[in-house]
Specification:
The chain is an alpha/beta fold. Helix content is 24%, strand content 25%. Strand 3, helix 4 and strand 4 (106-108) form a beta-alpha-beta unit.
């Protein structure tokens, strides 16, 4: 039996759950009304482990008219996909595009059954659903290049808009940009000296500046007496204070302190580094001025979404003590226990925060996470973290999603690019997490390749597709 036949049988079995009440066809809105927020936006989405990033509206119209080959590019294996709809979204497409063609491949499910049915049929499935009904198990697809997760998107050109309750108000949306390893040292610092302090961020600065909260995991302290940078200068590291201009330029809002090199030239330089962050109004987490405060979260309440960051160093260096600054311990006695961070996550979740938890884990130079890594990251999600992010990842690693949240085992190097011995050490992610009206809608994965030992540059479509395909494979999808 083919996946198409299995899906059809599932649809028939669930027909009794579908709302059969007549739904008045929604009116198509003018683009002007869509632009001012008086519109109901329909999102096009596919199960999270989908390589394709978007589609052309003309091809969607052709598919709806019965051209089963029009959207083969959406599926990871090139198969003709099936469109999954709710009764509401079917009526909306009829209002926008007219009746479906006789050969149109679509199935209608009750809203609560839509996601599971589409996942059962992957990779040959996609869906149309209201924007505010997305969650992390969907991958939002761009339509005609328009990304509804981008607050700056020109939605006046977005074609899937109908009348109804407004469901995409940027004043209710909070975007958090998470990054991987930053260490403004060695080869990266050499290129900053040659090409300017702002050079590493030039190609991707807007990925952070257009977010509401921009995160940087800076593993190294600033010190006025820091020696001039050199290639291959070892693993005892510091950064010149003027390099903080790069972090200012990309719009940093919160700094993670879970790194392994905060004390390399002495703990006193971490105190002066924290002074620099505080002077700029930046919050920090994952460490602090002493052990008592090291697990204090950084909290934000923006656009009606409460976000809390908490992190710890699982690896075991530069921990804060009762009298000295440093990174936060994950466990009280066993350094590889999570008994200190888990209660903090539970408390923050009980207080209504969307928790973003970070781990400075062991440094694995592999795309696949280890079994222990999977267990530990999952434990933080089970405790209530909506996002668990691997800050240690010098090598890009894979993902896991379920109804409770998103795990990214390693985002890769970010502003630290002189590990050139492996392609995986030069591949990096900026994960842009989108929260809307008190809900976590999902992640917009941005990918870059580090050039010149220093500068992340957006990947080509082919580079990005190859990386996503590899990571979905090692992640078990």
């Amino acid at each position: 039996m083919t996946s198409w036949h299995r899906t059809c049988l599932r649809a028939l079995a669930l027909l009794s759950t579908i709302c059969l009440t007549a739904v008045a066809p929604p009116a198509v809105l003018s683009n002007a009304r869509a632009q001012v927020g008086q519109a109901h936006f329909l999102a096009v989405a596919a199960p999270f482990p989908t390589v394709a990033d978007g589609l052309d509206f003309d091809r969607l119209k052709a598919f709806w008219s019965g051209d089963v080959d029009a959207l083969r590019s959406l599926t990871n294996n090139g198969a003709a996909p099936t469109l999954f709809l709710t009764p509401e979204s079917r009526e909306a497409l009829v209002a926008l595009l007219g009746p479906p063609g006789a050969d149109a491949r679509f199935l209608v499910f009750a809203p609560e059954a839509l996601l599971a049915a589409a996942w059962d049929a992957r990779p040959a499935s996609f869906a149309v659903l209201p924007f505010d009904q997305l969650d992390v198990r969907w991958k939002l697809l761009h339509v005609d290049g328009i990304n509804l997760f981008d607050k700056q998107a020109d939605v006046s050109r977005y074609p899937l808009v109908v009348s109804g309750a407004p469901n995409r108000d940027v004043n209710k949306m909070t975007v958090v940009a998470m990054t991987g390893v930053t260490a403004l040292v060695r080869g990266t610092a050499v290129m900053m000296e040659r090409k300017g302090v702002l050079y590493p961020g030039a190609a991707i600065r807007d990925w952070l500046r257009t977010a509401d909260i921009a995160h940087i995991s800076n593993e190294v302290s600033f010190w006025a007496g820091c020696p001039p940078p050199r290639f291959r200068s070892g693993v005892v590291m510091c950064s010149a204070p003027r390099y903080i201009e790069l972090l200012e330029d990309v719009g940093t809002d919160v700094v993670e302190l879970t790194g392994n090199h905060l004390w390399d030239y002495g703990w006193r330089h971490l105190n002066t580094t924290l002074d620099m962050y505080e002077a700029r109004g930046w919050q920090y987490f994952g460490g602090g001025r002493n052990a008592e405060t090291a697990l204090n979260p950084a909290t934000f309440d923006l656009n009606g979404n409460k976000i809390a960051f908490v992190g710890c160093n699982w690896f075991g260096v530069n921990w804060a003590t009762p009298t000295r600054p440093g990174s936060a311990r994950c466990g009280a006695e066993d350094p590889r226990s999570l008994d200190l961070i888990i209660p903090v996550i539970r408390r923050l979740r009980a207080e209504g925060y969307h928790v973003i938890a970070t781990l400075q884990y062991a440094e694995y130079y592999t795309y696949a996470a280890t079994p222990q890594q999977r267990r530990d990251f999952a434990a933080l999600r089970e405790a209530g973290a909506a996002v668990v992010s691997g800050s240690q990842g010098h090598h890009a690693q894979g993902f896991d999603v379920n109804e409770k949240g998103f795990l990214h085992y390693g985002l890769g190097n970010f502003f630290f690019g002189d590990q050139t011995f492996s392609q995986g050490t030069l591949q990096t992610f900026v994960d842009r997490h989108v929260f809307y009206d008190g809900r976590y809608l999902g992640v917009d994965l941005r990918t870059a390749f580090i050039v010149d030992n220093a500068q992340p540059v957006p990947m080509s479509a082919a580079e990005r597709a190859a990386l996503l395909r590899k990571l979905f494979q090692v992640s078990g999808y």
